[in-house]
Design a protein that fits this description.
The protein has 100 residues and is an alpha+beta fold. The protein folds into two domains: 1-30, no CATH class; 31-100. Helix content is 45%, strand content 15%. The protein is built from two helices and three strands. The chain is globular.
Length: 100
């Protein structure tokens, strides 16, 4: 995949709003360490939701944490491919969603 120019609409210290050339709408770039923190928070929400009798909220919480896990997995693969270290301590491969 060849790099292309992107438009940067807004920049904050841990995120930016950008538009890729092939996309109609802008997206958000989130720093990897911030995404890792979101994963940990989503996991905690899921684990607490499991204590509730509401199976729908359990399912929604699980879907949220799994989506973030997939983004982090891809992020880590790309960093590894380019010889970059993780901006956080523990790889997503070592962090389980379900408690044993």
């Amino acid at each position: 995949m060849e790099p292309k120019e992107i438009k940067i609409f807004s920049y904050l210290p841990n995120s930016a709003i950008v538009q890729l050339p092939e996309r109609k709408f802008p997206g958000i770039i989130l720093q990897g360490d911030s995404l890792s923190i979101l994963f940990d928070q989503a996991k905690e929400i899921y684990l607490r939701a499991k204590q509730l009798p509401d199976e729908e909220i359990q399912y929604e919480a699980l879907m949220m944490v799994e989506i973030i896990q997939e983004y982090l997995s891809h992020y880590e693969e790309v960093l590894n491919k380019h010889g970059l270290e993780l901006p956080y301590g523990i790889s997503i491969r070592e962090r389980k969603i379900q408690e044993e």
